[in-house]
Design a protein that fits this description.
By secondary structure, the chain is of the alpha+beta class. Helix content is 22%, strand content 34%. The chain has a single domain, classed as Nucleoside Triphosphate Pyrophosphohydrolase, CATH 3.90.79. The protein contains 4 helices and 8 strands. Strands 1, 4, 5, 6 and 7 form a 5-stranded mixed beta sheet that branches. Strands 3-2-8 form a 3-stranded antiparallel beta sheet. The model has no long low-confidence stretch (mean pLDDT 92).
C-alpha cells in the first residue's frame, strides 16, 4: 500500500505509533464469476484491491480509484458487503509503522479494462475462479472477508461492549 501524503505527515509527528485508518476494498467479480485479485509487491501476498481513504474522500470513490490504480480495471460498485476491523486488519510494517484498519468492503463488477499490475504496489493482477484462490498465498484479512461473504446481508461483527454499571 503506497503511503498517502497525509499519513506521511502524521508519521512525522507520531513516529511508528499505532494509527487507525479507514480503508476501502472491492470484491469485483466478472461475468464468469471470477474474482479480481492483486499481488502485493512487498509481501508477495494476494488480496482484493484496496487502499486508504483520503481525507474528505468517499469510501466508494476510494474503492473505485484503488481498483483502477492497482489493477487497471474500472468497476461499478453494486452493494456493500460489510465493515471489518480487528486483529486480522492490523499489523506492523517492516519499517515499524503500526497500523489498524477499519475496512469498508464493496462488491463490484468490472466495466472496462484488462487486469494489469501497476508495478508500484502490485506485481500481478488477475481474475481467479474460487477453486484457484484456495492455493494462493493470501492476506489473513482476506480469509475473514471470504468467510463473511456467505451471508445474505452486509457483515459486521456483533457488538461485545456493554456499560459496566448495568
Amino acid at each position: 500500500m503506497a503511503i498517502p501524503r497525509f499519513i506521511k505527515s502524521l508519521r512525522e509527528k507520531i513516529g511508528t505509533d499505532l494509527l487507525q485508518v479507514p480503508t476501502a476494498t472491492v470484491m469485483a467479480y466478472d461475468e464468469q464469476g471470477r474474482l479480481l485479485l492483486v499481488k502485493d509487491i512487498a509481501s508477495g501476498l494476494w488480496g482484493p484491491p484496496s487502499g486508504i481513504v483520503d481525507p474528505h474522500e468517499l469510501p466508494s470513490d476510494t474503492a473505485v480509484r484503488e481498483v483502477w490504480e492497482e489493477a487497471g480495471v474500472f468497476v461499478e460498485l453494486t452493494h456493500l458487503l460489510g465493515v471489518f476491523a480487528g486483529k486480522h486488519f492490523s499489523g506492523v510494517y517492516p519499517n515499524g509503522d503500526q497500523l489498524s484498519v477499519v475496512a469498508t468492503v464493496f462488491a463490484g463488477k468490472p466495466i472496462r479494462g484488462v487486469p494489469r499490475a501497476d508495478h508500484e504496489e502490485t506485481s500481478d493482477a488477475r481474475f481467479f475462479h474460487k477453486s484457484e484462490i484456495e492455493n494462493l498465498s493470501r492476506y489473513p484479512h482476506f480469509y475473514e472477508i471470504c468467510q463473511a461473504m456467505s451471508q445474505a446481508q452486509p457483515y459486521f461483527k456483533p457488538a461485545t461492549w456493554h456499560p459496566q454499571n448495568s
